[in-house]
């Protein structure tokens, strides 16, 4: 997912002895922001953070092609993993004739993707693959994501998930122990709009009570995330390009440097 950069200024600070000596970098950031906000200094650089789910906050625990192939062996799938991945990308990015890719639980869309990727139309195979991705152990959070979310929340930043996903998403966030961190979870299959539509971003901003000009969105798609967010005046950092870790997100939001 592509561009937009803002300079990061690392904070150099030594904890006074009264605070117990050296603090961890995350602890240092939190105390600096708390002291700043409470003492007339700068508040966090953004009042709200919107996060994409799949590909940004949620990463697959192992490669999709590997999973499709390993489950598929019991159903006669012999297609090599490289071919499976090529078919997956082709089906996933193909124009979808309906308004939303994910209707409800997303089965119609995912059935086509799995069949195109593997050349297997066995209903039992599809269901096993589908159910595999309905559980949190098929996914992982990027390193430091949970710590960053807690620190941003402690600093008063409003948090929201804004995702083109099906109705499994809420359970996945709960399985990964992060659903309680968010002030809003906005899912395309539930609200009837998908990114890059302005409506889905505006719904999230309304729910967290933050204006577009005072929030930032992080996602991994140039069109759905960046173009969609920018169209309503919402800044967007592309995951993997503008920011590569949740530590970077934390430091860019919790900075107290006047240059930000």
From TrEMBL:
<dbReference type="InterPro" id="IPR044924">
    <property type="entry name" value="HAD-SF_hydro_IA_REG-2-like_cap"/>
</dbReference>
<dbReference type="Pfam" id="PF00702">
    <property type="entry name" value="Hydrolase"/>
</dbReference>
<dbReference type="InterPro" id="IPR011949">
    <property type="entry name" value="HAD-SF_hydro_IA_REG-2-like"/>
</dbReference>
<dbReference type="InterPro" id="IPR023214">
    <property type="entry name" value="HAD_sf"/>
</dbReference>
<dbReference type="InterPro" id="IPR036412">
    <property type="entry name" value="HAD-like_sf"/>
</dbReference>
<dbReference type="InterPro" id="IPR006439">
    <property type="entry name" value="HAD-SF_hydro_IA"/>
</dbReference>
<protein>
    <recommendedName>
        <fullName>Haloacid dehalogenase-like hydrolase domain-containing protein 3</fullName>
    </recommendedName>
</protein>
